[in-house]
């Protein structure tokens, strides 16, 4: 994997070199549709957690296959980010987004046709590919479609969309499993309608990225981070990893410890507990957008640390209220940290390199989201689940603590006027 910089002609910060967003009467409506489509992409991923428990009960497959169904999504997503994360910087945002949503329609069809775990694993693999292509491209497109004065708000919104979609998917699927006789049809037929609307919205929106040569070269596995953003990228990477690893704890492992530790069998309750963490992240991501980006990252790191400690304590002592409070605190920390990280990094790249930069951010995020869950799922076959969760939470806490230290040192080292990320209307971090 190669860390590359964009050519020097593409290193001017977006605030000075990006063209003004295209004007058009229908652009605000189309932009809203693009935002809704970005939420729908994550919705489909979040819906898996309650549905997997139902499939395991009906089809009787072992726990490691359930973990595989969760993790294959992250693996194919990461592979797609590595290979195709910068493609939209070369061929434009619209072709990538439309192609990704067409793949998600294939995913819905596979879920609807599934009669065994093999179909589900295949569906999740395709879903990961589509999400890997779409996630960073949606982030870049939405920011670029916004008028310059609205870009700070849209940056915060794009950071909240993935976790908000995960929460909505988990909650909706949990309710569907509990109260519908055909939950898979309810979830994925509904998702199909929203995806078709998203495709129409993307086609109606103007293209924001000019075509550039080098698309084949861009398919070499690499992290494409503009040199102007590298320092902040590596400072923020542990924080992004801590937040998304904490999210993986709930989306990947909560259905298991809800049942084994707390004896929860109600699918709607299970879905609600899974949804607490990503929903808190989505709400906090928007709420913390009012603070300067630097302060929000530091608060976010502290909240993720506290959330991890409380969640582990709650699971080990079998106290569900502690787990819920931990989910709220840690989720809020993830939302604050991730949104502010994008606010800091976004202005450090222009339209010709922003897609690659956000792909690198999401590569860190989804590696932390998926890989530890796979390790934890394998470990839980040999050690008690509570011990697995304890080690998992300790790693999250250590990542958050290292991020707190790194950000504190950077805050003291740099003069206020030189700090980026002040996208709050006050122009400072």
TrEMBL record:
Pfam families (UniProt xref): MFS_1
Chain segments carrying region Disordered: 1-26
Biased composition (Polar residues): 1-12
Listed name of the protein: MFS transporter
Segments crossing the lipid bilayer: 29-55, 61-84, 96-122, 159-179, 185-205, 232-255, 267-287, 299-316, 322-345, 357-379, 385-409
Compartmental location: Cell membrane
Domain Major facilitator superfamily (MFS) profile: 30-414
Keywords, sorted A to Z: Cell membrane, Membrane, Transmembrane, Transmembrane helix, Transport
InterPro entries linked to this entry: MFS, MFS_dom, MFS_trans_sf, MFS_Transporters
Organism: Streptomyces olivaceoviridis (Streptomyces corchorusii)
Residue ranges with Low complexity bias: 13-26
Predominant cellular place of this UniProt entry's protein: membrane
Entry superkingdom: Bacteria
Lipid bilayer topology: Multi-pass membrane protein
